[in-house]
Amino acid sequence: MTSVARLSLYFFLLFLFIACTSVSDPYSLQGEAYGTTWQIKFFEDQNVIDKEELEIKVKEELMRIDSIFSLYDKESSISKINKNKNLSWNNLPGNKDFQELSKVSSEVVNNSNGSYEVFLNGEWDFNSVAKGYAVDRVCQILELFNLKNYMVEIGGEIRFSGKKPDGYWKFAIINPSLQNKMFDEFSTPITLSIATSGNYRNPGHIIDPDTNLSIQSNLLSVSVIDETSTAKADAWATALFATKIDWLNLANNKEIAAFFIFEEGGKMNSIASEKWIELLK
């Protein structure tokens, strides 16, 4: 396993859609994939959008990505590679996708002081970044349909583009105490992606890639924002949660927009990196 086998992140990150009676409701698509849920919302003139074709293409893309990176599907490309070391990604469906995820992952691997890895014990595992990548791929489909103001969410990994007719999109981070309330709420003045990693609902599921042991930390959750890539936000959320060094300093040194919730002295506290404050000011 990588440092992820990550929890469905909608437990950690709550998407809030704030509706007004004077604003038309968004068009919404939703479904299930990757053992979790997905949803899309957009506001553009629905009369010029072939919604049936859009839904078909989104579902086809989600299935395609699953057929490449699913560790549960024995016929997926990654399962075949992990089983047969003589196979090459060049000879299997998804080679370009593999190259994309390898590029994103390598950047985080090289900059996270060993706290992140997607190739462990001779096997590939992109669970920490595949859902974020799927969000990005779905966003590309929406752009082909000339949609500019939308939200795409898969299992808690979210990308916001543009804004709503009545203002900015908003999101809230769930309180790690697992009570039914928000820890904090934010507006999104820019197009951005956000992903969250945490260990409190399923203790021990995030693994140190050096020791293969569960991460032990007073850190409860890490949310990461990236302006260009949900996959990158996804990977960095895991890396920052798993790092053995000062996570805030790492985020600031690498200019990562991160929001940390941690326990100290029996109390729950939070702190944001400099980049987070800059993006959401």
Task: Describe the structure concisely for a colleague.
Helices cover 31% and strands 26% of the residues.
Please describe what this structure looks like:
This protein is of the alpha+beta class. The chain has a single domain (9-279), classed as T-fold, CATH 3.10.520.10. The protein contains 7 helices and 13 strands. The strands form 3 sheets. The chain has an 8-stranded antiparallel beta sheet with strand order 2-3-6-7-10-11-12-13. The chain is globular, with a radius of gyration of 19 Å. The two termini are 37 Å apart. The relative contact order is 0.17. The model is unreliable at 1-23 (pLDDT under 50).
SSE arrangement:
Layout: E1 13-16, E2 27-33, E3 36-42, H1 51-69, H2 77-83, H3 95-111, E4 119-120, E5 123-124, H4 127-144, E6 150-154, E7 157-161, E8 169-174, E9 182-188, E10 192-198, E11 219-226, H5 230-242, H6 247-253, E12 257-264, E13 267-272, H7 274-279
Question: Can you give keywords for this protein?
Answer:
281 residues; alpha+beta; T-fold; eight-stranded antiparallel sheet; three-stranded antiparallel sheet; 26% strand; disordered N terminus
